[in-house]
Write a structure and sequence with these properties.
Elements (H helix, E strand, L loop, with lengths): L9 H6 L19 E3 L7 E8 L2 H16 L4 E15 L13 E3 L3 E3 L4 E12 L3 H9 L4 E6 L2 E4 L16 H17 L1 H5 L9 H5 L3 H4 L9 E7 L12 H4 L2 E3 L13 H10 L18 E7 L6 E3 H13 L4 E4 L1 E2 L5 H12 L3 E5 L17 E7 L15 E6 L3 E5 L4 E5 L2 H18 L5 H10 L20 H8 L3 H5 L44 E8 L7 E7 L7 E5 L8 E9 L4 E7 L13 E6 L2 E6 L5 E6 L119 E3 L1 E3 L4 E7 L2 E3 L41 E13 L2 E4 L9 E10 L6 E8 L8 E7 L4 E10 L5 E10 L13 E8 L43 E2 L1 E3 L4 E3 L5 E3 L38 E8 L11 E10 L6 E8 L8 E2 L4 E2 L4 E10 L5 E10 L16 E8 L10 E4 L11 E4 L9 H7 L15 E3 L9 E3 L20 E2 L7 E2 L6 E2 L4 E2 L14
Parallel strand pairs: 1-4, 9-11, 9-13, 10-11, 13-15, 15-16, 16-17, 28-31, 30-39, 40-43
Antiparallel strand pairs: 2-6, 2-7, 3-6, 5-7, 8-12, 8-14, 18-19, 20-23, 20-25, 21-22, 21-24, 24-27, 25-26, 29-30, 31-32, 32-33, 32-34, 34-37, 35-36, 35-38, 38-39, 41-42, 43-44, 44-45, 45-49, 46-47, 46-48, 46-50, 50-51, 52-53, 54-55, 56-57, 58-59
């Protein structure tokens, strides 16, 4: 379900019932607001909540009702809620300061005073044309403490969007955002996009909340815990849900509708997440898959249309409490704040009931109720990747987060299933976890279970609490382990003060879990520590306008690429409010301040009088407020703070060059030596040392050290340079030509690498760094896209003239829609997810990473950057590095590391696209394509000469010792570097010659002939095992690459321990995909043996999986990777035939090892500390009989076809939806036989007691007196073949 940009899809808008358009409203706009809280009323029919102080107050209300009836008025008391204890009626916490920018409560209310007492409330239904007069009359009754109009409630899925404000013509993009963000987030999960299922699936959210950690433990509760779902009802006939008769499901009817009928589907969907039956081979599983360990109670809180009233919801909650429910799940909201409702929820909390509710789907900071009452847990929504769902509301009451985008669950009428999105879908995950935990720790209170979930949650946003994720993502396993330490350890005190109930501990959101304490004087802030020397601190002051959530900013160091973005702020939560941020101490230099407004009207002066101010120390550097989508201010210059020139010793390291050297170090280096440079001079240099090196330096004269240390020079390098020394020697002038003048370091001489800034090169038509350096930065040369409003890209299109130029799309506006803002290539690598620059030149054979700054539309879920590399910008041949989806909306940064190939003039291309498929030049109207050319330092050793010959080792070794090799290694070529495969037509698969590793390169990339990813030379298997043709490239399964490598040098040799690494693309979250590895010792006659156990994809998208293996005898061996959708019996079939399955082989050349001749390789016993699938060797005269049983179990070399009546595989999944109904058969393969004892492999023999060793003429031939079958390996005596 996708909505194309630039068009308003009315049918889709209708499908979402009332789609949202979030535009700005000026003072003259009409009243309807997106979070407007409407009264639950129809014409003159009204509903009022009347709170009373005590029983006499209630009696007075009843008397007033009877009097009104006597006056001929239509009125009745439909419900009376008597609270367990009296509670205070409170005004909304933070009223006037914490509401969202679009919130408006239209209901009428009267409150006697803040803190007035209520013992209960009546629900009065009446008909009147003057509701104000009736409220005034009721408020005058003795004992009445509050009168409020009842509020409208509705479900919290994305089917219920907020109302349109402003003209539709002005807000088409907002409508698209509201719809498309939902569709994109639905598509993030597997089930949402494809609808394909096996017999039973585990929705991604169940694993994401780690529910299975608790399943194997037995609950301590004597009776199953009762979970209540207050919603639109429950389909009691659904095949995958607990039933009345078998599991005791019961419920509460209301609105003249049955709890056991769900005319909408919302309640059934939420119930399925909590408790769909697991292990029954149907539909889905859930947080609580065992219906014997819990029971449902269903409260019909909303009608079949998905709406209801606050009083109706509370009546359902009351019924749940009265019937023993411990956990109540409420995926609804919209009633607005009610002092009466707040008191009621406090009363339920005092009765040790835990209520969970959805935070709301407005995508704004408005408070939604009941979730925002302190006694209710407010749940935010996450996507399958763990980021915040764009629709999820954010405020101070958000407490915890759970999966809510594209959640697969049960639907009524016909045993249906579907993936829906909303905080409604997140709420039941938390409710299910709470019940699961409480059933194991029944002695804990509701507040302790609540706090345990908070204290064990997984950080999702900022450290600690933040308004988007609360305290983090709920994790059942973590909470279980924490609760094992005790309820008080996990969840705090359970004994409130006298005259208080458990609601004393219920603070909600950011305050939850913090025990109340007497007020203390605020601490005196510590004075700011002054900065050393000339350093100062940056201070950024922001005054927000009426829409603070639209404002963000960054401050970037333009001189030091390793620092980059040093400060950032926003979005903000409070309008017309000053904010101030202070940086760490910084040197004076060049910095860029950029402020953004997502709506495009700045912070002044259309909707408020906001402003910004940037100061460095006491000096103002930038200020303003009136701009459109963004404003950038650059100030200062690089290199304005040179390194010390005095003789004083720097605080952290000795100087690396004589202080009097006339050369100025590069501005990014200062006095800090390169990371890998060994000390080449004593700590205290001699000030009068000459800056040049004499022809023959004296070892004991430290002042004559080179002015710049060589990063790779070893400390033991000889003092006298040798003209023929390898590149690691100091790059000094040859001794035969002593310099007569000071030497100026050249860029290619090995001196310190300097960060390079690109300039536009008209001959290529793109930004280019013509000089070598540690990095290449496009700066602002790529900022913008095409000719879009407020963001025309300079020198567009910035794609290489020497290839096919690629024009950008011109739809949308700058920093409202997609654009590439900056590309930087840096020498270094990514370690633990963090880019680490090396400080060296970008060099052939080294590592580098590309950093791309993007502006992503909406939530970012529909935007993807395809990153490509070419080793020759003069004749570009683009090789894909990766495709990365935006991690969020607005300004985002992505990073991709890569191996630098051979070539001195290389280029990166970024293809940034809205939806679509990977491409070097996508045609979309919102797509941006930019190149950056960078110069690479040459390394002659990267590519060996065409004819291998012994060469001098790159690093001199004091005592040359030959590398230990097999005894016959001298018969072949010397050890070779890693090999890249080429396609072998005879074998039908990629093959490598002798090398230390074998890499399939791009020969396996893709699958069959799928869209945008047809596999070269398909199927790339030795026995023509064909791939499935379903789906599309890098959306569905494919094997991209296989690499076989070993840790030591030398060619791959029999007996070597190798690692097989497969780079694969896994569908969705990866949990539905499996991969097997196989090996054959003879690629010409493959007999596949499975290596180890079947593996589940470790995640979705691009993944790597590995296996360890020991190479047996055989000169031409092969490995197979078989990637399949779904699961099967491990080891049965090396060639599955599913529509999404991919099978690829890689053939390697293996050198013989005489030390293992006469040995047989067979899968050995697997010990607890062994690598699965390792190969062990047994002498031919060893007692191998003891291994025969294990051999027969583990050596799955015989592949027997699975036979169906029609000779084809059976279908899987439910047909008619997405990819369901496909065939999963097995392919026949020729049976091979092995045995545990071998004769020399000189003939195919048959033994088993025949008069002579009959020679087999064909495989499977009967021979010998016992009629045994032939096998090609040959067996001794009574050894039987393993069939």
């Amino acid at each position: 379900m996708f909505l194309s940009k630039g068009t308003l899809n009315l049918s889709l808008a209708l499908a979402f019932t009332a789609s949202a358009a979030i535009g700005k409203v000026s003072a003259v706009d009409a009243d309807p607001l997106i979070a407007s809280y409407e009264p639950y009323a129809t014409g003159s029919k009204q509903t009022l909540l009347v709170s009373y102080r005590d029983d006499s107050g209630h009696d007075n209300v009843v008397n007033r009702v009877e009097k009104m009836k006597g006056e001929g008025k239509k009125v009745k008391e439909s419900k009376n809620h008597k609270l367990n204890k009296t509670h205070s009626l409170k005004k909304e916490k933070g009223a006037g300061t914490k509401k969202g920018k679009s919130e408006k409560d239209r209901r009428l209310r009267w409150l006697q005073e803040d803190g007035a007492i209520t013992a209960g409330f009546s629900v009065l239904e009446l008909e009147t044309d003057d509701i104000k007069a009736e409220i005034a009359a009721l408020s005058a009754i003795d004992g009445v403490t509050a009168v409020e109009q009842d509020g409208m409630m509705h479900i919290n899925t994305m089917e219920y969007q907020q109302k349109l404000r402003g003209g539709a013509a002005d807000h088409i993009r907002e409508i698209q955002d509201a719809i498309s963000a939902t569709a994109d987030e639905l598509a993030e999960d597997a089930e949402a996009q494809h609808g394909r299922r096996l017999a039973e699936e585990t929705p991604y959210g169940i694993d994401m909340v780690n529910a299975s950690h608790v399943w194997d433990y037995t609950p301590v509760m004597t009776d199953p815990i009762k979970i209540c779902v207050v919603d639109t009802g429950y389909d009691k006939t659904h095949e995958d849900l607990p039933t009345e008769s078998a599991h005791g499901v019961d419920g509460f009817d209301q609105y003249d509708q049955l709890w056991s009928v769900d005319g909408h589907g919302h309640g059934t969907h939420c119930a399925g997440t909590i408790g769909a039956i697991g292990g029954n081979g149907k539909g889905v599983t859930s947080v609580n898959p065992d219906p014997s360990k819990f029971t449902f109670y269903i409260g019909k809180g909303l009608t079949d249309s998905g709406s209801g009233s606050s009083s109706g919801v509370m009546a359902a909650v009351q019924a749940c409490v009265d019937n023993g429910a411990k956990v109540i799940s409420m995926s609804l909201g919209g009633g607005g704040y009610s002092a009466t409702s707040n008191a009621a929820y406090e009363d339920y909390y005092d009765q040790n009931v835990l209520i969970i509710a959805a935070a709301g789907n407005g995508g704004n900071s408005a408070l939604s109720y009941p979730a925002s009452y302190p006694a209710v847990v407010s749940v935010a929504s996450l996507t399958s990747s763990g980021s915040r769902s764009s629709f999820s509301q954010y405020n101070d009451q958000v407490e915890i987060a759970a999966p809510g985008s594209g959640v697969l669950s049960t639907l009524p009428t016909g045993n249906n299933y579907a993936a829906w999105s909303g905080t409604s879908m997140a709420c039941p995950h938390v409710a299910g976890v709470a019940a699961l935990l409480w059933s194991h720790f029944p002695d804990c209170t509701n507040n302790q279970i609540r706090n345990a979930m908070i204290n064990s949650s997984v950080e999702s946003g900022s450290a600690g609490w933040d308004k988007y994720y609360g305290w983090g993502r709920v994790n059942a396993g973590n909470a279980y382990e924490l609760l094992k330490q005790g309820c008080e350890v996990a969840g705090g005190d359970s004994n409130p003060p006298a005259d208080e109930g458990l609601s004393y501990f219920a603070l909600g959101g950011k305050d939850q879990g913090v025990p109340p304490a007497p007020p203390t004087a605020p601490p005196t802030p510590s004075p700011t520590v002054p900065c050393p020397g000339a350093q100062q601190r940056f201070e950024v002051q922001i005054i927000t306008d009426n829409y603070p959530g639209e404002t963000t900013w960054t401050l970037t160091d333009k001189c030091d690429a390793s620092i980059g973005e040093m400060m950032s702020g926003g979005p903000y939560s409070t309008s017309n409010t000053p904010y101030s941020d202070m940086s760490a101490c910084a040197d004076d230099g060049q910095y860029e301040f950029k402020i953004n407004d997502s709506y495009g009207d700045g912070v002044c002066c259309s909707y408020g009088a906001g402003s910004y101010l940037v100061k460095f120390g006491t000096v103002e550097k930038a200020a303003g407020g009136q701009f459109a989508s963004s404003e950038t201010k650059t100030f200062g210059t690089c290199g304005s703070t040179p390194p010390p020139t005095t003789g004083s010793t720097p605080p952290s390291a000795p100087p690396t060059a004589p202080p009097t050297n006339g050369s100025t170090p590069p501005p990014t280096n200062g006095s800090t030596p390169p990371p890998t440079a060994p000390p080449t001079a004593p700590p205290t240099p001699v000030p009068t040392a000459p800056p040049t090196v004499p022809p023959t330096p004296v070892p004991t004269a430290p002042p004559t050290a080179p002015p710049t240390p060589v990063p790779t020079a070893p400390p033991t390098a000889p003092p006298t340079p040798v003209p023929t020394a390898p590149p690691t020697n100091p790059p000094t002038a040859p001794p035969t030509a002593p310099p007569t003048a000071p030497v100026t370091p050249a860029p290619t001489s090995g001196d310190c690498a300097v960060a390079q800034e690109a300039v536009f090169d008209s001959s290529y038509g793109v930004p280019r760094c013509a000089n070598m350096g540690s990095s290449c930065d496009s700066l602002a040369l790529l900022d913008g896209r095409g000719t879009i409003s407020n963001g025309n890209e300079p020198n567009r299109s910035n794609t290489n003239n020497n290839g096919n130029t690629c024009n950008d799309g011109n739809s949308g506006s700058y920093h409202g829609d997609e654009s590439i803002d900056q590309i930087t290539v840096t020498a270094g690598d990514i370690e633990s997810g963090v880019p680490v620059p090396s400080g060296d030149f970008i060099t052939e054979g080294g590592r580098a990473y590309v950093t791309v700054k993007l502006w992503c539309w909406g939530s970012g879920a529909s935007d993807t950057a395809d990153i490509y590399l070419t080793k020759d910008a003069s004749s570009p041949d683009w090789e894909p590095l990766d495709s990365i989806t935006c991690p969020g909306g607005g300004a985002q940064t992505i990073v991709q590391a890569f191996d630098v190939p051979k070539g001195t003039n290389q280029s990166i291309r970024v293809n940034f696209r809205y939806n679509g498929s990977p491409s070097t030049c996508s045609p979309g109207g919102y797509d941006d394509h930019d190149d950056l050319i960078f110069t690479v330092k040459e390394d002659p050793s990267v590519t060996p000469p065409p004819t291998p010959a012994p060469t001098q080792p790159p690093t001199p070794v004091p005592t040359p010792v030959p590398t230990p090799m097999p005894t016959d290694a001298n018969d072949g070529p010397p050890p070779s570097p890693g090999g890249v495969a080429s396609y072998d037509e005879g074998l039908g698969a990629p093959k490598c010659s002798f090398a230390s590793s074998c890499d399939s390169g791009g020969l396996l990339n893709g699958r069959a002939n799928i869209n945008n990813g047809a596999e070269p030379n398909q199927p790339n298997t030795l026995n023509s095992c064909t791939d499935g043709t379903g789906g599309s490239y890098h959306s569905d399964e494919s094997i991209d690459k296989i690499v076989v490598s070993k840790a030591s040098g030398g060619d791959l040799t029999e007996g070597d321990s190798v690692t097989i690494t497969a780079t694969i693309w896994c569908w969705s979250s990866g949990t539905s995909d499996r991969i097997d590895f196989y090996h054959t010792a003879d690629a010409s006659q493959p007999a596949w043996t499975q290596i180890g156990l079947r593996q589940v994809c470790p995640g979705g998208g691009l993944q790597t999986v590995t296996k360890q293996f020991v190479l047996p005898q055989g000169s031409t061996q092969a490995f197979r990777a078989n990637l399949m959708y779904g699961s099967g019996t491990a080891g049965v079939n090396s060639c599955t035939s599913g529509s999404y399955d991919d099978t690829d082989d890689l053939v390697i050349s293996v050198r013989p090892n005489p030390s293992i001749q006469g040995l047989v390789a067979s899968p050995g016993k697997i010990k607890h500390d062994d690598v699965q699938g390792a190969i062990v060797y047994a002498e031919k005269d060893a007692a191998a009989d003891m291994m025969e049983k294990e051999l027969q179990e583990l050596n799955q070399s015989t592949e027997k076809p699975t036979e169906d009546d029609d000779g084809k595989g059976k279908g899987k999944g439910k047909g008619g939806k997405g990819k369901g109904g496909e065939s999963v058969g097995t392919a026949s393969a020729t049976a091979k036989y092995v045995c545990t004892k071998h004769r020399p492999l000189t003939a195919n023999i048959c033994d088993e007691g025949s008069p002579a060793d009959d020679t087999c003429t064909s495989e499977g031939q009967s021979c010998g007196r016992k009629g045994k079958k032939c096998w090609f390996a040959g067996c001794d005596g009574d050894e039987e073949a393993n069939e």
